[in-house]
Amino acid sequence: MHRAFLKQHRGVAKRFLQAFIEGLHQVMTNKEKTVNVYQKILKQSDRALVEKTYDYYAPQFSMPPRVSLDGLRTTAEFIAKKVNVDVQTMLDESLLDELEKEGFFKPFKR
User: Which of 13, 76, 92, 103 could form a disulfide with 87, with the two C-beta atoms 3.0–4.6 Å apart?
Assistant: First the structure.
């Protein structure tokens, strides 16, 4: 998301982020529902395969869903070989900070 869009449409971006986080919470806490949805979307009839995939990926998510700065640096270093990139300009977690300050994540804490 570009900073200009975020500045002009902050409310829209915030509501989208809230919906994304609610969906992510479902993925993290409701294996049965998530596996069913993945099977349908991926058109995968092998349930055991989808469950293995879920078991691997679901614990990788965090709440709140923050970006790993080390991972971002690694990605930026890879990109920087082709384009000059400043990692600090790639990340804006102000909406997450705002939601955290408002207590939005309290119901999602494990």
Answer: 76
Closest C-alpha among 106, 47, 94, 37 to residue 67: 94
CA angle 86-99-108, nearest 5°? Answer: 110
Q: Which residue ranges make up each domain of the chain?
A: 3-66+94-108
Instruction: Tell me which amino acid residue 77 is.
Output: E
* Distance between CA atoms of residues 32 and 39, nearest Å: 11
Q: How does pLDDT run across 48-66, given as a tens digit for each residue?
A: 999 999 999 999 998 999 8
DSSP state of 94: H
Spatial neighbors of 39 by CB under 8 A, at least 6 apart, are 45, 47, 50
In whole angstroms, how far apart are CA 54 and each of 2, 65, 73?
Answer: 31, 17, 27
Q: Tell me the whole-structure pTM to 2 decimals.
A: 0.74
